[in-house]
């Protein structure tokens, strides 16, 4: 699966997606980002160049560090993830989001409240449009409230949101394209009942 979209190619890597989120609140250096995401400074710099070439990050300044100068980068404002609709591109992005969700869920604090949901619903178009706009606003509000990693008094929060309108799922015979597939391998239905 490939795409010529430079923005998608830049975002379709779990480390770059994490770096984008970390740079939202405050400028970060390649060294800082490398420490946060668990890669070398050189690899973090490579990822920053890829994000920069796609127009997703910008250099915001420099600072002196141990006799040298390090560049600081920040995510360009906007939400490039919010409307990736084309087939292969949407699948690539969903796979990257799923990877990050799996990784972050390993760090979930067990006794802290959170929100977990999985939906496949039928809504009126106007209800869907209004909800989608509200959710986009909430995600932007969450990003705007974020602070630099490990700022005193903050807590680390993970989240993945992927909401989208689906096709009707009918193939040419009028049956669901997935009918008979869900749970077939283990004899269970979609919700896990036997």
From TrEMBL:
InterPro entries: ArsR-like_HTH, HTH_ArsR_DNA-bd_dom, HTH_MetalResp_TranReg, WH-like_DNA-bd_sf, WH_DNA-bd_sf
Keyword Transcription regulation: yes
Gene3D superfamilies tied to this protein: Winged helix-like DNA-binding domain superfamily/Winged helix DNA-binding domain
Xref: SMART domains: HTH_ARSR
GO molecular function: DNA binding; DNA-binding transcription factor activity
Pfam families assigned: HTH_5 (PF01022)
SUPFAM superfamilies noted in UniProt: Winged helix' DNA-binding domain
Residues of the HTH arsR-type domain: 1-104
Keywords: DNA-binding, Transcription, Transcription regulation
Name of the featured protein: Helix-turn-helix domain-containing protein
């Amino acid at each position: 699966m490939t795409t010529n979209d430079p923005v998608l190619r830049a975002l379709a890597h779990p480390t770059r997606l994490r770096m984008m989120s970390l740079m939202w609140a405050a400028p970060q250096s390649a060294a800082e980002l490398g420490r946060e995401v668990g890669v070398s400074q050189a690899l973090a710099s490579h990822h920053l160049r890829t994000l920069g070439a796609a127009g997703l990050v910008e250099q915001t300044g420099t600072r002196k560090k141990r006799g040298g100068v390090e560049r600081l980068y920040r995510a360009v404002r906007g939400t490039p993830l919010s409307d990736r609709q084309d087939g292969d591109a949407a699948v690539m992005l969903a796979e990257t989001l799923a990877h990050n969700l799996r990784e972050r869920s390993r760090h979930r604090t067990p006794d802290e409240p959170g929100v977990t949901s999985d939906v496949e619903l039928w809504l009126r178009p106007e209800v869907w449009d209004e909800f989608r706009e509200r959710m986009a606003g909430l995600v932007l509000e969450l990003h705007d409230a974020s602070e630099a990693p490990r700022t005193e008094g903050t807590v680390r929060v993970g989240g993945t949101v992927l909401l989208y309108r689906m096709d009707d799922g009918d193939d040419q015979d009028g049956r669901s394209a997935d009918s008979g597939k869900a749970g077939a391998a283990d004899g269970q239905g979609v919700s896990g009942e036997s």
